[in-house]
């Protein structure tokens, strides 16, 4: 059974050739099938994560290496959660997906065999209109050099206040926070003050370190919406799946 699953998903992934961005061509539930049908089952039966890099059943998430890029990983819930539009992410007992994804940035550093500053690493989620998969997944990878430089102006911002900026041709609002857990979970921060006329379904969120050490410098929450003039439903282009920043450091 395990060999059959491996063969099936190898064919699916090889046929698409560019990570979760094109998995929908085969199956919009492919990520969910991999995590639930293989990784979770493997962890429950043998204590190993199967295709996944990590499965934490108590924390309700898995980490999966995306085939797009040498260093990109995905955090995927081990329960059925559609995405940023799901009310589940704002429930009182919702798992801290963002802080868990931030902890998983170490896999990116291991992949590039280099320690990177926290401002060089990012997490991102797309709106349902700019994603291919019907299961929540947070991208974990390197940031673009020019975006790091652009966001540097926000490193000294007063925590908890939004500031508008144009990045890569799109309008984003940026907030520095000193935590990404509890009330400062990025889903909650964005949902509390949605731009007028927008919904969570139209949002994209990116999180990166405000400086080299998020523990002391804080994080930047970068948010845009498809419903805004010059807005975006995907902040993923602000990341670099080739991780050129590793070669520059």
UniProtKB/TrEMBL annotation:
It is a single-pass membrane protein. GO terms for cellular component: plasma membrane. Keywords: Cell membrane, Hydrolase, Lipid biosynthesis, Lipid metabolism, Membrane, Phospholipid biosynthesis, Phospholipid metabolism, Transmembrane, Transmembrane helix. Its EC number is 3.6.1.26. One of its GO terms (molecular function) is CDP-diacylglycerol diphosphatase activity. The keyword Lipid metabolism applies. This is CDP-diacylglycerol pyrophosphatase. The gene is cdh.
């Amino acid at each position: 059974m395990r060999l059959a699953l491996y063969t099936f998903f190898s064919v699916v992934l090889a046929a698409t050739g560019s990570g979760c961005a094109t998995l929908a061509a085969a199956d919009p539930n492919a990520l969910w099938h991999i995590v639930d049908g293989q990784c979770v089952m493997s962890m429950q039966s043998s204590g190993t994560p199967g295709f996944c890099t990590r499965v934490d059943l108590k924390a309700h998430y898995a980490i999966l290496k995306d085939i797009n890029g040498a260093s990109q990983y995905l955090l995927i819930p081990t329960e059925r959660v559609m995405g940023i539009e799901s009310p589940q992410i704002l429930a009182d007992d919702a798992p801290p997906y963002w802080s868990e994804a931030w902890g998983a940035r170490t896999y990116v550093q291991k992949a590039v065999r280099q320690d990177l500053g926290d401002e060089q690493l990012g997490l991102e989620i797309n709106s349902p209109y700019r994603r291919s998969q019907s299961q929540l997944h947070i991208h974990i990878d390197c940031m673009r050099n020019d975006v790091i430089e652009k966001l540097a102006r926000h490193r000294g911002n007063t925590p908890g206040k939004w500031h508008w900026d144009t990045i890569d041709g799109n309008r984003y609002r940026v907030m520095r926070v000193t935590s990404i857990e509890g009330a400062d979970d990025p889903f909650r921060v964005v949902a509390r003050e949605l731009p007028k006329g927008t919904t969570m379904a139209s949002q994209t969120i990116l999180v990166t370190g405000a400086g080299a050490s998020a523990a002391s410098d804080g994080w930047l929450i970068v948010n845009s919406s498809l419903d805004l003039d010059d807005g975006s439903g995907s902040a993923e282009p602000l990341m670099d799946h080739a991780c050129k920043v590793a070669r520059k450091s």
